[in-house]
Design a protein that fits this description.
The chain has 139 residues and is mainly alpha-helical. It has one domain (2-138): Large-conductance mechanosensitive channel, MscL, domain 1 (Non-ribosomal Peptide Synthetase Peptidyl Carrier Protein, Chain A, Orthogonal Bundle). It contains 4 helices and 2 strands; from the N terminus they run H-H-E-E-H-H. It has helices spanning 2-10, 13-46, 71-117, 124-138; strands at 57-61, 66-69. Strands 1-2 form a two-stranded antiparallel ribbon.
């Protein structure tokens, strides 16, 4: 089991995963700031000047406070998710486009190299003369 764990770590999977997690958490902070500080205030302004995160329904008043259903926080979480999903979509789309362009470039270079290596077919009269020469050499 220790040997398998050592192989798993040495393959680089753990490092790739760690880099992904660190990048993901930093990206999440950026998206949350974008949503909370830029997008939601604009949306709130368009719909009457209130903050979505303050939207709630009071279910029961108690001596310690109130039991509330905070649907505004849910709306904000949905907006966060949609923005993250859209940005990831754009990143994946751009990466696929770059990968396709690189593959096309490699394919084009391979085709050019193949056409340079293959000699052109000689005209029919030259081919016939070459055959006659080769036959005469054999005799």
């Amino acid at each position: 089991m220790f040997k398998e764990f050592k192989e798993f770590i040495s393959k680089g999977n753990v490092m790739d995963m760690a880099v992904g997690l660190v990048t993901g958490s930093a990206f999440t902070a950026i998206v949350q700031s974008l949503v909370n500080d830029v997008i939601m205030p604009l949306v709130g302004l368009l719909v009457g000047g209130f903050n979505f995160s303050d939207l709630k329904v009071t279910l029961k008043e108690t001596a310690d406070g109130a039991v509330t259903l905070n649907y505004g926080a849910f709306i904000q979480a949905v907006v966060n998710f949609l923005i993250v999903a859209f940005v990831i979509f754009l990143v994946v789309k751009a990466m696929n486009k770059m990968r396709a362009a690189a593959e096309n470039l490699v394919k084009k270079e391979e085709e050019e190299a193949a056409t340079e290596e293959a000699p052109a077919e000689p005209p029919a009269d030259i081919a016939l003369l070459t055959e006659i020469r080769d036959l005469l050499k054999k005799e």
